[in-house]
Design goal:
By secondary structure, this protein is α+β, with helices and mostly antiparallel strands. 41% of the residues lie in helices and 28% in strands. Strand 3 and strand 4 form a beta hairpin.
Length: 116
């Protein structure tokens, strides 16, 4: 699974942040590793460093699964760590739901299999 991290101009995108975010994403999504081809993470400070405020750190994660449209979630929190953790948890639930729904649909098919 390839993870790409992007930051807006209000967040200093250094190597330590990138490693921490990538580690969190890979640990959280590890069980889907064979299905996920690419993950894009976008980190931003919604109010910039001028205003401050609660829940102004935003994390948007987009995951590309083999054979499916990309899935995306966002989460806002007081810190980047909380925003990343929240978005990763939301994405895990979304992938679980999506794959479960696909599995259910495959099991409910009544049409005969295609013959070779």
């Amino acid at each position: 699974m390839q993870v790409q991290i992007n930051t807006d101009s209000n967040i200093e995108g250094n190597e330590a942040i990138a490693q921490q975010v990538e580690s969190t994403i890979k640990d959280t999504l590890d069980r889907f590793g064979d299905r996920i081809t690419h993950v894009d993470v976008h980190l931003s400070d919604e109010n910039s460093d001028k205003k401050g405020g609660d829940n102004d750190m935003r994390c948007m994660i987009e995951a590309r699964l083999k054979g499916l449209q990309p899935l995306a979630v966002t989460h806002q929190a007081a810190t980047l760590d909380q925003a990343v953790d929240g978005a990763a948890d939301k994405l895990t639930r979304l992938i679980d739901s999506t794959l479960g729904r696909l599995h259910h649909q495959e099991n409910q098919r009544t049409d005969p299999p295609l013959s070779s």
